[in-house]
Design a protein that fits this description.
By secondary structure, the protein is an alpha/beta fold. The chain contains 6 helices and 7 strands. β6 (about 150-155) and β7 (about 155) form a beta hairpin. It has helices at about 35-45, 75-80, 105-110, 115-120, 130-145, 160; strands at about 10, 20, 25, 95, 120-125, 150-155, 155. The longest helix has 18 residues, at about 130-145. The strands form 3 sheets. Strands 4-3-5 form a 3-stranded parallel beta sheet, with no helix packed on it. A two-stranded antiparallel sheet has the order 1-2. Strands 6-7 form a two-stranded antiparallel sheet.
Length: about 170
C-alpha cells in the first residue's frame, strides 16, 4: 500500500455519500497494459474505478472516465461524482489511455487540481514499444471489424486497408 495514501475526501455533493478524487492516474497509451494494471490492482482490492456510470454498473468497475479529454465540459463536480465510497471503495483510479496523447488533458488536469490533490495524487505513465503496440491495435481493430460484420470502415473497404505480410517483404501501406 506504499503507492496509495489516505483518499482525498471532498464535501458530500448530495446526501451522506462522500465523493473523492482518484488517488492514481494511469496516463498510458492504448494497448500498453492499462487494463491489465487496473485489473491487478482491483483484484488485490487496492483500488476501485469510477462508480456507477453507465447506470446499473457495479461500483468501482469502470477504469476510463475520459473526463480530462472528452467530458471536461461537464464540470469538475461531474468528475468528483465518479468516485464515492459506494461499494466499500477507499482508493480510486482513473485509467484513461487517451490522456497521454490528448493535447488539452494536461491543461485540464492542472486547472482543476486542488492544492492538496497535487501533493498526493500519483501519476503513472505506461508506455509500450511502438511496433508491438501498433500490431496489437491492428489486431484489436481487425477483430472488431470481423465481429461486427463490417466489410467497410470509414477509411474504405477492409481489403484495401489491411495488408498481407509476406516473409521477407515489408508490406506496402496500401
Amino acid at each position: 500500500h506504499v503507492l496509495l495514501r489516505a483518499p482525498m475526501s471532498l464535501q458530500p455533493t448530495s446526501g451522506s455519500v462522500h465523493h473523492h478524487l482518484p488517488d492514481l492516474l494511469l496516463i498510458g497509451v492504448q494497448k500498453a497494459a492499462t487494463t491489465s494494471v487496473f485489473q491487478v490492482l482491483k483484484e488485490a482490492d487496492l483500488i476501485c474505478g469510477q462508480c456507477c456510470q453507465p447506470a446499473g454498473t457495479p461500483p468501482g468497475q469502470l477504469k476510463e472516465p475520459h473526463f480530462f479529454d472528452v467530458k471536461f465540459g461537464e464540470g469538475v463536480e461531474s468528475y468528483r461524482g465518479n468516485y464515492s465510497e459506494e461499494g466499500g471503495c477507499t482508493h480510486w483510479l482513473d485509467a484513461s489511455p487517451s490522456y497521454m496523447w490528448d493535447w488539452d488533458s494536461p491543461t485540464h488536469m492542472v486547472s482543476m487540481m486542488p492544492p492538496k490533490w497535487v501533493k498526493t495524487v500519483k501519476m503513472v505513465a505506461l508506455l509500450r514499444e511502438p511496433i508491438s503496440r501498433d500490431i496489437s491495435m491492428y489486431n484489436m481493430q481487425k477483430r472488431y471489424w470481423l465481429e461486427h460484420g463490417g466489410a467497410t470502415t470509414r477509411l474504405g473497404p477492409i481489403k484495401s486497408i489491411l495488408c498481407r505480410y509476406e516473409h521477407g517483404n515489408f508490406p506496402p501501406s496500401r
